[in-house]
Every structure is written in structure tokens, then in C-alpha cells.
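A quick word before the example. In earlier lectures we treated sequence and structure as two separate objects. From today on, think of them as two lines of the same record. Here is Sulfatase written that way.
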Amino acid sequence: MVNACNSPQQKAENNTENNFERFRNVVFIIGDDHSTKVLGAYGNKIVKTPNLDEMAKNGVLFSHAYVNSPVCSPSRQSMITGKYPHASGVSLLSTPFPEEQISIADYLTPLGYKTAIIGKNHFNSSSNHGFENKIQKKDYLDFIKTNPPRKPADEIKSRPKWKPFKDPANIWLNADALPSTYYDEEDVGTFYAKKAIEFIQSNQNDRFCLWLGFEEPHSPFNFPIEYANKYNPENMPLPSGSQEDDRWIPEVFKDLTDEEKKGIISSYYTSVEYLDKNVGLVLNALEKAGLKESTLVIYVGDHGYLLNDHKRFEKHMMWEEAVKAPLIIQGGKALGEGKIQSELTEFVDLFPTIIEALGEKPLNNIHGKSLVPLLTEKTDKHRDYVFSEFLPDNKAMIRTNKWKYIFSTGKNDLGMGYATGFGPAGITHHLYNVEEDPKETTNLSNNPDYQEIMQELQVKLLGIFEKTHPLAGNVPASWSIEQKFVAYCEPPEESKSEETSK
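And the structure line, produced from the sequence above:
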């Protein structure tokens, strides 16, 4: 826990070295599985996202923002701690967020901020992790029990219960583009937005930190009855992929027809539009409360999403569409309007950004780097490369402006239900020139002309692990770089569990 030496207001007034007025509050909004490709502000001409687009017009859009893991729990806890997944204690989907880790709320609540986490949190435990208020799915279900929703008309066909991997993929990915059983007023996203508004209104005279996690557009791509039939599947874009993708297509997706794939994509677009509406409710509440200028608002996707990119759906890979995600930051006149920032950024950077923007003392032993100098145009440089890892499949990535290198132990077929049927691939290396080959169609790792570049990237990747990994210092120096990567790409919590059981 962090102890306050001075009041938050005093710190905000005294800490002015970057010559901009410190923010009183922060609202952090997360879209679940939100691809940059399905957002108007990022160039999509089909989807309707007026509120997020307006947020980008009023703030700064980051065009090259990367998650530190393309899976929900590790990504979210890296954001909330400013640490890479292997150091946050959460590198797997079901791992409980460790109590000893310092979350953004553990830091801010003792300083006098009112704090709340609303919606999806992936804590995988009953802990609040420093947040004074926690509202989640069970609270929504209680709301539905005590406030019975309107019954839909008999002719309205709704989505069946979500049963991934038990039902065929066309059903759990909602290829029929069916709505939920609820009208907008009673649906889960609207419930979370209303609870966020209540928190803002109740604390508008205090300093606060609101962490808001919507469930959309995660499969089954939820949207209420009023949103049905908004997007014609026939008009949906359908990426074709490349021959190299064939080795990595999960069996669960191999029987999907092009018609079903377009239906899935139309469901996703609809869910994004519903998400955008609810983000708009929260932004409007801030403005009505007179807090727009004094509140730092951050919108992110917890990672990207593959919409038949590379011939598959879901995330869990290191392709751009999975590891690059939306990042939009709004802060009134202090940050300017309509800026596009193309510097490489990581989502661990958001924790220190919030702390500096609020005028608080930086926290040591985190891996993020504050974006405030970029946001205030004190610098035009940030990172030379970004890092991500997906330890359920024992892989890690480093990306520069021009190159991307991916290592995987390949000791298992793809996990979490996405097995390819080809079996374990063994140790694999992927090297892409993302400048000349942005769709990542040609793996250059076996090309003799690129061995020096790959080795340089391996050294950089190893450096990240050796500076941040809990195993650092215990891996024998005599090991080859591949042997070291194999050790570092094991989920740390599994190793810890094995040690405890001995």
C-alpha cells in the first residue's frame, strides 16, 4: 500500500514541471476484444462509432499501441499494475490476481481518491484489489432478478446461451447475428454505463478513479433487441489470409462457411456499435457534471481480435490484428484535440501515465513508461520496441517500427481450445518485415539474409526478460538463447505451483 505524504490536491498543484494543469480524475474504459479495424476513428467506414470517434477528435489517438498479452486476464492486470504479465503474477486466463501486487486503486485510494471498478475485471477472485466499490456481472444478474425485464415479442428470435466449444463455432460466435433477450434499457452494457454514471454523479466533488470494463464486443458479440439487423452480413469485409496461415488454423473454425464468417463479423460490428453507445453515455455524464476538462479519459481494447484475419477468429496470436488495440486518450484543452500519435506504445505505459497526469509520485519497480511527455508534446520519442507474450502457448514477441520477431517453444498444439490438429510444432521462430509486409504473410526467419536482424531482435527480447522476469538471475548464463527463451516462456504461476506442491 502507498501512504499519502501530502493531500492529492496539494500534489496536483505543486507538481507542474510539464507545464500543464494536472487532472483531478481518471476514467479508464475497456472494450473487450476490440479490434482497431472496427472503429471509425481508425479508418473503418462501415461501423458506426460516433462517441469513440468524437473522443478521438477531442483527444489523442495512438495508432501503434500494443497489449502485453493477447488474452484477457494477463492483459488487464498488466494495465492495472504497469507490469508485464510474467511479473504481475497473471500470465494465464484463470490465474487469480495476486494480493501482493499493487493495483492502480491500491495506489490511489490511500491518497484520498474515490475508486470503483465496474463491469468485467478478470480478478478471478473475490478481492477488490484496493477499489472501494466493485460492481460486476453478479450484480447485474441480481438487478435482473429484482427488476424483471420486458418479455420480447414472440416473433423475435434471440441468441442461445453461450456455450463455446460445446456448440459449433457458428453458434457460439453468433453467425446468425441474433440479439440478446433484453431491450437496451435492461442489457448488461447499459447497466454498467448507468452504474458508472451514478459513481460520477456521487463523487463529482471528490477526486476519483473509475475503472469501467464493458463485456462487448467479446463473443458472443452481445447487443440488445433494438440493435438487430443493423449490419447486412453480405456487406461485411472478409479477409482472405495467406498460405502461411494454414498451419495455424484451429480445427474449431475449419468448417465455417464464408456466409457464416460474414454473419459473425456483422454480429461483431453490431456489438461494437452498442459498446460505443454506452461509452457515449459515460462521456456525456462527465460533460454534464462539468468534469470534461478536469478528467483524463482513457479508452482501450484489452487486446485486438481476428475477424478471419489469418483465416481464424479470436485472439491468442502475435499477429498485428491480435496484439495491436485501440488507445484513445481525452483530456480537454490540456492535451489538445484531434492528434494522432504513431509512436510505439505498450499498455503497461498506462499506469504511470495516470499517476503522472494526476500529479502523484511515480511508483518504482514497474515496467511502463509514462505517455505524458508524448501527450504534452515535450518529446516525439517513446519506445524503440514493444513486447508482448502469450504464455498459454509459450510464446513471446518483440516489435520495432520495421521488424517483428516471435519465439515459441511449440511444445503443445495451440491451447485454450484452439488446437490445429497438426500437433506440437516444436520451437519456432517468426520474423516479419512489418513495414513492407504489414499483413505478415512471409516468415523470413529461415532466410540467411536476415539472420543478423533476427539475432539482434533476440538479444533485445532476452534483455526484457532478464530485466523483468522473476526467473532472472536463476537461468544459467551458459544456456543458449533458445534454452533461456524456453525457460522464460513458461507461465511463472505454474512453476510456482509446482514448487509449492513439492
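Notice the following. The chain has two domains: 25-383, 387-494. We will return to this example when we discuss secondary structure assignment.
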